[in-house]
């Protein structure tokens, strides 16, 4: 099943969360049994889906948010060009990204990128990366070394 889908550029948050639910269905979680789906909307209106993919060695496991971002970059999108990301999981409150995903989202998505968080019950929380990761470490913090 091909999860990449063409959508209108102006997509509302509920529609983007529905796209995240599609990705949620493909999560590979034999160890934690905790599925997460993500849907990243690019500047051209294309949705890039991501789901968490676990590994018995644990550290190679990749979260849904990073899967969607890496897939979009691999498909030729520029960092910072994304319109929004939605994330959904089976949680009591709307799910939130882990610290590693927040760092990657801040750099590749941008600090002002809207983040729509949801759960299977239909609860929604809207925020931005700047709110999720205040004082983020971003590329501008790196200084070029003199040779």
TrEMBL record:
UniProt-listed PROSITE patterns: CYT_DCMP_DEAMINASES_1, CYT_DCMP_DEAMINASES_2
Gene that this polypeptide is encoded by: cdd
Similarity field: Belongs to the cytidine and deoxycytidylate deaminase family.
Cofactor: Zn(2+)
Alphabetical keyword list: Hydrolase, Metal-binding, Zinc
Catalytic activity: cytidine + H2O + H(+) = uridine + NH4(+); 2'-deoxycytidine + H2O + H(+) = 2'-deoxyuridine + NH4(+)
Name under which the protein is recorded: Cytidine deaminase
Gene3D superfamilies with a match to the protein in the record: Cytidine Deaminase, domain 2
Limits of the CMP/dCMP-type deaminase domain: 11-140
Record carries keyword Hydrolase: yes
EC number(s) given by UniProt: 3.5.4.5
Cited Pfam families: dCMP_cyt_deam_1
Function: This enzyme scavenges exogenous and endogenous cytidine and 2'-deoxycytidine for UMP synthesis.
Leading EC class: hydrolase
């Amino acid at each position: 099943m091909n999860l990449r889908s063409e959508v209108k550029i102006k997509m509302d948050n509920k529609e983007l969360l529905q796209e995240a639910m599609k990705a949620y269905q493909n999560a590979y979680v034999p160890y934690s049994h905790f599925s997460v789906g993500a849907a990243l909307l690019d500047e051209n209106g294309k949705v890039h889906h991501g789901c968490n993919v676990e590994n018995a060695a644990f550290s190679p496991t990749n979260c849904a948010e990073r899967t969607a971002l890496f897939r979009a970059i691999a498909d030729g999108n520029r960092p910072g060009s994304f319109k929004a990301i939605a994330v959904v999981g089976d949680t009591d409150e709307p799910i939130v990204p882990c610290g590693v995903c927040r760092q990657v989202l801040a750099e590749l998505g941008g600090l002002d990128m809207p983040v729509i968080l949801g759960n299977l019950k239909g609860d929604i929380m809207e925020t931005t990366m700047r709110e999720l990761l205040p004082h983020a470490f971003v590329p501008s913090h790196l200084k070029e070394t003199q040779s």
